[in-house]
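Take a careful look at the sequence and tokenised backbone pasted below. I need to know what the token row says about the fold.
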Amino acid sequence: MNDSNIIILSGDSLRYDRAMDDNVMPYLASTAETATNFQNAVSNAGFTPGSFPSLMASRYPSSIDGVGIPEDGGVTTLAEELSQAGYDCGVWSDNKFVGADYNYDRGYGTGQSYEDNLRDNVRKYVDEDGLLFELLEKGYMHVWQRVKNALTESHYYATAEEINKWAKTWLADKDPEEDSVHLWLHYMDSHHPYEPPADWMPDGLEVVSNRTEANNVTRRVCQDDGVGCSDAEVRDAVRLYDAECQYLDSQIEAFVENFLEPNGWFTDDDVLVVTSDHGEIIEEYDKWGEFGHGNFFNEECTRIPLVIDAPSLDSKTVDSQVSLIDLMPTLLDLVGVEVSADELVMGESLINVVAGDERRETIFYDGTLGFHGARSEDGVKRFNTEYVGEDTYLDTEFKAALDGDYDETLVKGGLGHDRLGAFVTERLDECATLSDESTAIDPDSVQVKQHMKDLGYLK
């Protein structure tokens, strides 16, 4: 093992095209030019509950019985492997599906998943299915939130600046010369509702005039998938999403350039990863029946940035398709940590892919609730979605344009698509052999349903 620090900065719902756009995220785009840029990377799922088993434990969600990961056993996580190797590990986010409630604190000595807001506290005393809770919630969204924003700038999620402060406080008690750390920050700024800080609100919006309206309009556009929303509201939502990405980029730059580097936490010997758990559907939402994200595997929802700056990797672009299932074994490989339970890990290191000795010809999509698919490097895909139902599979052809354009067309499937169907069956059989020993949180539990509502997946 070496003593390289491992820093992971992930933006929720962050699209590849925005991350590589100099006009939207100039810092991340420039970082990609001097690091290893996996420009054809995809998530294995279309929303956080499906993606984080791959990110943190190199496991497809179908290999786990439930949401999240088991409380103990069944899987091994990146943080567990690193902590056993002597790392101090910390994780911070404000996503209810990232943290101790779903056992993602395994291996992390410290961190925070989310803070209870006013609605969380009211829910403890009032039936959320009753009329009183509905009235109180509407009062919160349309009255109390407006008052708060008039008095002080409130946000639905902790901002990137706040999350960076939590990490800085933790690192302040450590010595970069003595301590090896693994830090994971998962930012929520690019997740709906899109309500950028006041200084980042776009000029000339057509419908939205303040941050409270930004919250309410973008939440409605996403929850209703654009149905019944005006073209002006949709255009405002897209501009607000871009503004959130711009703000996030500025905070990543400030954290890396003004804190990590000058304080010795990110040097030429350390590893920095910038990525996302999935993308965001904001353009062809009428084709896919979704504005935002969920159990969808089209390019908009799954194409993501994956940039790794590591001493043993060349500064280059990698055109082979890759996915998040391989991130954990890649990072352990980079710092010389052998997996203690290799049979529990479903991904493989990308080191040989970077060297050009291997390619990932087919990638498995695995969501939740029976939604799956596959992506072939030759430009064909087969998958089902929440919009068409789990019994209907869509066949598409796509071009993974390296400039970030999304070009995906629904087609009548052929032999290539049929081979993907067989591939999906094989992967599901592989997952089934592991799921019996990997029990997590019941997807029908009150906890899961509450968190799905709070994140805007359910009304």
Q: What stands out?
A: The chain has 15 helices and 15 strands. The chain has a mean pLDDT of 91. The two ends are 48 Å apart (CA to CA). Residues 125 and 133 are 10 Å apart (CA to CA).
